[in-house]
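User: I'm writing a tutorial on reading structure tokens. Could you give me a worked example: one chain, its sequence, then its tokens, then a sentence or two explaining what the tokens reveal?
Assistant: Sure. Here is the example chain.
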Amino acid sequence: MSTKSRVRASFLIVVPAVVGHILLPMSLLSRLWRTTDHDLPTWLAASFFAASYFAFMYVAGAWSWFGSLCRHVLPVLLILAVWRTYPGGRGKTIPTPLVSVESVAQSVLGTAFTAMTVLALRGRKARAPVLDLAFPLRGGTFQVGQGGASRAVNYHFSHPSQRYALDVLSLNRLGIRAQGIYPRQPQRYAIWGAEIVSPCDGVVMAAVDGFPDSHPRIAI
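And here are its predicted structure tokens:
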């Protein structure tokens, strides 16, 4: 893959990730935080949409790119924003209820993200048949990036031959998977040097060595 192609492919991955994990949550928080004159239906719709989106991203988001701190801080900020803007709180009067097109749209989106959150949570529960295997890595903090019994948490699930596949990530002390977005040097990934162990009993029939280090398909 040429440098230009790698940059383009990385752009198509990085931009949606930044928008979905950082920019959109901050936009929802800012909009909710700065508006204190909502009527109750409008406030409920805005809070429901924000809470459902935050819940989905908390469960299914790729936080190994941005760190575990972001994952836990954003819900706290949402709780503060909801508490601060409650129309009937701390002596505020609740304006005359008015259902707007925006409120209806937020309610629909909130329902959709709630459904996706439920699917993501269900995907974390094992379904029969189950393969009982030990974890194959040692010497670090690890996270399953893609894995589970739902497409919401595992893109492999759409392919029957890959449903048991797991994308395992190693995280540094900040909960980040690598030094950079898609660094080309394998040494910049936290999983570099992790000890690999057998996940089950078996007999090694053959072992091959001497191949060069593999580089990420998309690297910048």
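What the tokens reveal: Strands lie at 137-138, 141-146, 167-171, 195-196. Helices lie at 3-34, 40-60, 68-85, 101-122.
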